[in-house]
């Protein structure tokens, strides 16, 4: 399998919003935010299938999430991860005096991660605090 470079966008999603209303420690929330939406062409070129585990890496961090095909991704080379601890692991803390980190446009690398696992939220947050 081949990896690929992409531009990371993060944002709200309906499932993420519904999941956080249940509880940010619920399985429903985890399932809604531990995904990466990928353009179908990128999935095909990388040999990925829906539900495959992928590692997404930016200069700020690296996480393993589930790959989900999306027709909402406007073109190949763009990926989307819903707001939450997984997306936050890939975003820098600098706000450049705006008060808001840059949640859009980070350069990322995507690769298959079949031997890895998606960390649960508690472990993910523990790792962030320890870094």
Task: Provide a quick synopsis of the model.
This protein is α/β, with parallel strands linked by helices and 131 residues long. Helix content is 28%, strand content 31%.
Overview of this protein structure:
The protein is 28% helix and 31% strand. The chain has 131 residues and is α/β, with parallel strands linked by helices. Helix 1 packs antiparallel against helix 2 (27-33). It is globular and about 35 Å long.
Secondary-structure blueprint of this entry?
Layout: E1 4-11, H1 14-22, H2 27-33, E2 35-38, H3 40-46, E3 53-58, E4 61-69, E5 78-82, H4 85-88, E6 104-112, H5 121-130
Parallel strand pairs: 1-5, 2-4
Antiparallel strand pairs: 1-6, 2-5, 3-4, 3-6
Descriptive terms for the model:
131 residues, alpha/beta, 5 helices, 31% strand, globular
Gap between N and C termini: 30 Å
Shape: globular
Over the alpha carbons, how many angstroms does the gyration radius reach? 14 Å
Percent strand equals 25-35%
Helical content class: 25-40%
SSE pattern: EHHEHEEEHEH
Average pLDDT score: 90
Strand order of the largest sheet: 1-5-2-4-3-6
**Topology, number of strands:** 6
SSE-based structural type: alpha/beta
Major sheet details: 6 strands, mixed, barrel
- Contiguous helical run count: 5
Question: Which stretches of 5+ consecutive residues score pLDDT under 50?
Answer: none
């Amino acid at each position: 399998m081949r990896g690929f470079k992409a531009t990371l966008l993060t944002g709200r999603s309906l499932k993420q919003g519904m999941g956080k209303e249940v509880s940010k420690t619920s399985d429903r929330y985890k399932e809604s935010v531990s995904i990466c939406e990928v353009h179908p062409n990128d999935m095909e070129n990388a040999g990925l299938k829906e539900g495959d585990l992928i590692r997404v890496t930016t200069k700020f961090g690296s996480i393993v999430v589930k790959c989900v095909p999306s027709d909402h991704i406007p073109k190949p080379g763009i990926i989307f991860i819903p707001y939450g601890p997984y997306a936050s692991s890939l975003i820098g803390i600098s706000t450049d005096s705006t008060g808001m980190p840059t949640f859009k446009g980070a350069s990322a690398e995507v690769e298959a991660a079949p031997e890895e696992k998606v960390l649960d939220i508690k472990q993910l947050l523990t790792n962030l605090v320890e870094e």
